[in-house]
Amino acid sequence: MGKPNRKHREAKRRAKEGRVDFWAARADHDRPPTALEIAAALFTAAVESNRGGSRAVADFVAELAGDESLRAEVEQGAQLAGARLLGLAYEGGWLPGDIHQGARRRVGNFAVSLLIDLMAAHIRPFARDTVDETWLAQLDELATAVWWSDTTSYLGQWSAEHMLTTEESLAAVVELLALLVQLPRLELIRPLPGTARAQVRIPHHVDEKVLTRVRGLLAKAESTSFPDEAEALSAKAQELMTKYALDRVLVDADTAVPDLPGARRIWLDTPYVDAKALLVDVVAGANRARAIFLAEWGFVTVVGDDTDLDAVELLSTSLLVQATRAMIASGDPATRGDEARSRDYRKAFLVSYATRIGERLAAATAATIAESAEPQRLLPVLASRQLAVDTAFDTLFPTARSRGIVIRSAEGWDAGRAAADRARLDSRRSLDT
């Protein structure tokens, strides 16, 4: 029996002592493992890592890295495992931006770097005109690109680029695979690469001139130190987006080309993600959309027309910044005591703030509709659109259910509502910036 096989027998014996058989899928232990068998073993290592078996995984990685005779098979196996699990994640509804958001919260920078390169390799065979616009935008934002040469191993080039040993590189591979294994199945909200041309849905995004004005209003809202001014500017942005959306609805009604419901995911940063999710939900409601929160991963999926989704994304992002600033500003211990710094206070503040802002945004939207040029013509069209959104939401999330948020600080609740009430949300205000 040759030296490589003795090493693998020993690795198998130690794995069994640790109650893990990384080579369970290997049919013949009397020959060196193939790249495919190594890929399966790395998958097992990822699963074991998620179960807490870090010591056994570390020993296995060290064993693989130490066998120079298997270097080519190990590097190829790592690529096979990564490509397969990434493809399964995509088929399971995850978009490139979603996986990246999950990765940057749960794994190290080296694993994130591997992920971005895997994405570049995955999209490489597809013609650009067969890839969905959301995919293209997210991949462009991540700056995915095939920078490595095809004449030699990718993992070897990547290791050299980051000045890592083979063992360190394989540890990053297992870390990334462990993340990909964890990803739950999601709803497929955008077409997979290669199928985009088969979609009949034509997205209608907000005109860039309008977006520029809205972004300007929200930038001013985020930069001012006066809560009243910030919330008034946000209200102007909401009114502008609503007026544009209503005009778009009437145009589509005339041309019989409706902007069919779509979906987007908005990721939230800790802490207080449930309170922040509520803020996204109320903004969605004020813009004729529906939202659902996946707490384990910290993102909200919003279903609605594209113009409304643009509004929800812009306004939610800005209001989250403003709500956090208002929360911190309200927590002066000199006037409110130590409770103002507690988690209970801050969570209650954000929930109350979101609730009140939702009420006021909804009122502003209703006023804008009432003051539109053709409210009687507009209302039945909006009702039809809402039915389409509700149907799309129920189709994507047939088991969705509502749940409450526990509030443990009355003082935080009162402070949050007062902060939201200070806003001058006047829907009759001029829209000139």
Question: Would you tell me the overall average pLDDT?
Answer: 85
Question: Which percent range fits the helix content?
Answer: 55-70%
What is the β-strand count?
3
Strand order in the largest sheet = 1-3-2
Radius of gyration: 26 Å
The H-and-E topology, N to C, reads as HHHHHHHHHHHEHEEHHHHH
- In percent, how much strand structure appears in the residues? under 5%
> Main β-sheet: number of strands, strand sense, barrel status?
3 strands, antiparallel
Q: Give the N-terminus to C-terminus distance in angstroms.
A: 80 Å
Q: What is the global morphology?
A: globular
SS field, number of helical segments: 17
Secondary-structure-derived class: mainly alpha
Q: Spans of 5+ residues with little confidence (pLDDT < 50)?
A: 423-433
Detail the topology: elements first, then pairings:
Elements: H1 3-17, H2 35-50, H3 54-66, H4 71-91, H5 96-106, H6 109-123, H7 133-141, H8 154-161, H9 166-182, H10 208-223, H11 227-255, E1 262-267, H12 273-286, E2 290-294, E3 299-304, H13 306-330, H14 333-336, H15 343-370, H16 375-396, H17 410-421
Antiparallel strand pairs: 1-3, 2-3
Helix pairs in contact: 1-3, 2-3, 2-4, 2-9, 3-9, 4-6, 4-9, 5-6, 6-9, 10-11, 10-13, 11-13, 11-15, 11-16, 12-13, 12-15, 13-15, 15-17
